[in-house]
Please model this.
Amino acid sequence: MKTAIITDSNSGITQAMAKELGISVVPMPVLIDGEQYYEDLTLSQEQFYEKLKGDASVSTSQPNPIAVGEIWAEALKTHDAVVYIPMSSGLSETCHTLSHYAESEEQFKGKVFVVDNQRISITQRQSTMDAIKLANEGKSAEEIYKYLMDTKMQSSIYIMVDTLKYLKKGGRCTPAVYLIGTLLKIKPVLQIQGEKLDQFAKVTTLTKAKSTMINAIKSDFETRFKDLVAAGKMTLAIAHTENIAEAEKFKAEIQEIFPDVEITFVDPLSLSVSCHIGPGALAVACSVKY
Model:
């Protein structure tokens, strides 16, 4: 069975990368002052941050199911089935919407498998890379779907937010918390453990933020993922929002602390997350690899 792998641009996989990998990437819509753009097609990372820092009204929305269906249908012309890996249902209704669409449309029944494996950004990219390996080994769509679902909670993301401004704009912190936090120079560390973006810790410096995130990964490696680490099955990745220089420095620090764990990517965070946390963020993630 020949299986097509498709993800969305929340994975951080660009259209150019997708061509090299032999997959398709659905561009996610971004609304800026009421006008709709598409990530990596009509909106670059640079243009996004220029608008965001200019205090434009920026939000993300779900892709049109019919447009996504057209991409599935095109893939089914040359493949027997499709495995579609969207962003986590804990962060968007997109996954539920497209799951229903795949199940209700006759042309996609039993052929399109929508994976709700609770991933976003660099962990979603890892899932996609795993799916590509499985497909190249000749695994069926059902087998790929099962692997991704069985391993869905075997990842963590920790994110340092440089400013509370964008959390306040998105309604994720109150004006009072924003005022106090700004005065105290708070840099919150958030986490994504498969579901929503939640608070993990509060620190006041970049150094403390990095130390907090490293200690969180250490804890995961010593507890939740102990057996996977011992088996050489865990990876690390670094992400950032318009903060590549610090991301590269963080990568070097992480590699020194975890010399036996592969660092797979240093990527910009997806725009769906970036619009809520703004520029200057730094993140580390761990996830299982096939």
In short: Confidence is low (pLDDT under 50) at residues 174-181.
